[in-house]
Known about the structure:
The chain is mostly helical and 263 residues long.
Amino acid sequence: xxxxxxxxxxxxxxxxxxxxxxxxxxxxxxxxxxxxxxxxxxxxxxxxxxxxxxxxxxxxxxxxxxxxxxxxxxxxxxxxxxxxxxxxxxxxxxxxxxxxxxxxxxxxxxxxxxxxxxxxxxxxxxxxxxxxxxxxxxxxxxxxxxxxxxxxxxxxxxxxxxxxxxxxxxxxxxxxxxxxxxxxxxxxxxxxxxxxxxxxxxxxxxxxxxxxxxxxxxxxxxxxxxxxxxxxxxxxxxxxxxxxxxxxxxxxxxxxxxxxxxx
Length: 263
């Protein structure tokens, strides 16, 4: 008898993947061809500041001209100082743009550390000469390693539980066959050695032979079923492992990198 195919567990939907790409990773849709569509470029903070300054200067001059001031009138010094101070607070040193850039840089660096993209720090000469054992990964395993380790441990636990459940059922059958063997031993008496009890001895021997044959057949069948079950779980594990690798590679290709950030 063959085991029914176990349903393959599907990963939960990830928030950073679209539904079409997730279905493509699961093998239900073909992967989209061609480069991904890029969103239209948004103006930078400096461009926005320049546009606001130009609009402020233009509206101020229009207001002065509407009140009868000459067209060649320059902007007041207070407005010039206010615009310069606003630009410095937004774009200058230790301004809003620099602080926002530092926060973004730190977040991207944290993401790269979690994904294991940044190379691990090399041990110094003191660490190499020290007799104390060094942790090869002070920051702990990266996110891809944790995901794959969790998947491996989950299937290992599933295989162990499946094996224990089948062994428990087969152990109950072994107890029945053991009780039959003990019964045959109790029926085996010295009187069966006489020629008059030859027929009873043959019946007892035939019953014990039948019990032993059934035990051997069921043991071989159980071993075959257990092997098929473990192989089926291994096959599903390899399929899910391939899906996990594809999803993690896609994640690594889509998250921002520090070298791709432009100030």
